User: Fold these one by one.
Assistant:
Number 1:
Amino acid sequence: MDHSTDINQRHQARMERKKAFIDKKIAAADKEIGIIIVNTGNGKGKSSSGFGMVIRALGHGMKVGVVQFIKGAMSTGEETFLRRFPDEVSFHVMGEGYTWDTQDRERDTEKAQLAWQQAQEFMRDPAIGLILLDELNIALKYRYLDVHSVIADLLERPPMQHVVITGRGAPAELIAIADTVTEMAVVKHAFAAGITAQAGTEW
Amino acid sequence: MDHSTDINQRHQARMERKKAFIDKKIAAADKEIGIIIVNTGNGKGKSSSGFGMVIRALGHGMKVGVVQFIKGAMSTGEETFLRRFPDEVSFHVMGEGYTWDTQDRERDTEKAQLAWQQAQEFMRDPAIGLILLDELNIALKYRYLDVHSVIADLLERPPMQHVVITGRGAPAELIAIADTVTEMAVVKHAFAAGITAQAGTEW
């Protein structure tokens, strides 16, 4: 048996074992239910992953609701794009940018609470298959919103509705009730090498 | 001074310091250039973040090329959705699903190389502002593609073109030449709780 045949056969045997293992796990996981997904950590990709899930849901014919907390001083590429589909995506952006730009806690709290009312409206509508609550974790971290009321509302939503929540510093209470939680960790970042925030990659 | 005024004033002072710090960092980062972004790790959100960047780029009027390595047995929501915009997004899916389903190393290698030819074509076209090479890391990990040739091609692309590369197990050589690298780490996963892979969240 020559060397490359050997590699190919060992590859096949390994892949057969892997397939058997994965098939067994898939058979055991049979529940269909709306899930809560949290993307947190200091790395990139928390919001963009949420927007990737938005188009995944749209591809399956779902209706989607988006609420952006905190962000909003500058309109983003994803907002411009998704506003092309008003029958499929309801997009709500909380005004006035990051909290270190506004420096006004009372006004930020008010805006966050208005944004949460929009989220509540989406959570009362079972026709909405997926809701993205972008940067909600920041609003919770600064206590613009109370984590216990937020969780109570989340748990009362329609059973098949998925929710994606993003932002660094997800509170422990939220992680405890979430189904899937990912921590995005920085390995390296272009910004540190002097590259500015560019259209199409950062906003 | 009452308690809430005090909290609000301390918040404002903290945010002023934060804004000064961030503004200084932003002023120092002034380069505009195409960047290489790598999403790796065992957690969720690597591909979906890539697709979020696709719509971000589309919102800025960029053209986008997508090549999906490895995946492809089952069409995904993001593919269905993005195929609605053939003038804006070129979508190429390498056939036949995951390597543990095909169990044939030679055929997988051939398919991966065909998919790489598609990527090379995108990298010769400066009109394409962003390229998503989804699950490329898997094709590198199994050595369906040679990491050094892949890197040579990446470094010769048009200077303003952005590339997003996803998949667990990104090789060290690729991390070394990338601009922004994020590791998606599992904190918890719905699958472990017996919830199946569902339309709109997992595919």
Number 2:
Amino acid sequence: MNKLLIVGSVAFDAIETPFGKTDKILGGAAPYIGLSASFFNLQSAIVSVVGDDFPQEYLDLLTDRNIDISGLEVVKGGKTFFWSGLYHNDLNSRDTLATELNVLGDFQPKVPQNFKNADVVMLGNLHPLVQSSVLDQMETKPKLVVLDTMNFWMDCALAELLEVIKRIDVITINDEEARQLSGEYSLVKAAAIIQGMGPKYVVIKKGEHGALLFHNKEVFFAPALPLEEVFDPTGAGDTFAGGFAGFITQSENVSFENMKNAIIHGSNLASFCVEKFGTERMVDLEKKEVLSRLQQFKSLTQFDIEL
Amino acid sequence: MNKLLIVGSVAFDAIETPFGKTDKILGGAAPYIGLSASFFNLQSAIVSVVGDDFPQEYLDLLTDRNIDISGLEVVKGGKTFFWSGLYHNDLNSRDTLATELNVLGDFQPKVPQNFKNADVVMLGNLHPLVQSSVLDQMETKPKLVVLDTMNFWMDCALAELLEVIKRIDVITINDEEARQLSGEYSLVKAAAIIQGMGPKYVVIKKGEHGALLFHNKEVFFAPALPLEEVFDPTGAGDTFAGGFAGFITQSENVSFENMKNAIIHGSNLASFCVEKFGTERMVDLEKKEVLSRLQQFKSLTQFDIEL
């Protein structure tokens, strides 16, 4: 089985949407990525950090999905990263109510020895220096390195972000972030500029409006599945990235054509994530549901104009 | 050849975008629809009205595309409908600077005798009573009636709009209008409610984010082609509708499966419309360019996950 190495935050989230609010629940990029990737045939490991306030129940939830957590450091007396957000009525925008870095503040990632030869590395949203450090520790060159980041690092650590971006194959960011990073409003132009920064493949996530994959002059588009109700968008982007990286890891095929399939798998998994609060839906999701909804993506997008 | 009857405004538009501004140029729903539909093998006619200030050059431009203008009334001493708009920097929103109804104010449509048996009727954006009057004049039941409308009529003539909506097969509106008409934020729920008002098929246009086609529990999505630059979005929705109605007219197939193809054709033609000011690009567009870009739509959306 191929190996997927995942780095990203592990967090407590407190979320409020028009449909309700949660206490502190499992959150962070790495769990969403790991849960999503677990629907593929692969070995995965998470590199991250939590405090000793992090419940065994959440650790079990990850190991139950065969996610290796030997690289998940538990800091004695430390507090786990905490994020709290309030979504507006349209669920397309949110206010961050609290960000307490806690143990994430001076995190030094340690890649488990048996994942230093991972086939695919998924660098989830974290400080670019942490992302770089993970790449430094790899003993064999991964077949594919995927990086997700956000505007926060463009504001606070742009030089470090640009350094790590040079070293990756695929970047996944949202439309506003692509505009910020490139200085171009047109996403086509933005993607070309970002390709010039290093990554040969640029994935631009547009939330309910789907995702675009750019490579040289080629472009592919995956819609988001139109849903009756989006309950909580938290983690949808990470779930998308996890599905993308997970499928690539399983299939061992890093061609543009196969990335099209990977983007559809990512969109498919993300469409479940938003149906309940936090990771709830991803935890009770069954493989047969995943396969069945893939058929909906086919019906949604496939047409038969003969050319 | 099958017949497509088009009703809609014929106008002078004055447009300002971040890329420049125009004097009064050819505008209105009917010319955009007619030019777009002219890329298919069909007979078309426009029912509309202009003043005698309307230049022969614009009439020629329509007849050069084999569009029958015997139903285009020219009011002696009348002034043609005038619209002026200013697009904001993102081109997704605009301010209307002027709307002078002029001869459109008390327009009584007259369907040419040889189009009273049209196969497809495209009711472009106009007062719902004008749209109803066109349907009243049909001598045979069209295979398909498509209606485009806008929020203005929902605000000012909702009862009349709901009356004509009962009589049509396909409605094309944008996302905000679908929300206004249905009272539902979710487009899936909005489409279901609108289907309950009459039309079995609901097309929701999302501009640069593509278009959705709903029918019972089924849904199809056509992306907009990602473009380096959108120059002027004016008429894109009408061009989309014209491509949709034109392809259906040519193919004589009103199945949901064929409507998927029609939506792709509409999106394809609309992607050209926005490349220049007003109708300029649609006038110099060649059929081989249209076919070539259809291939891009295939590459953009088709994937090969085996299920």
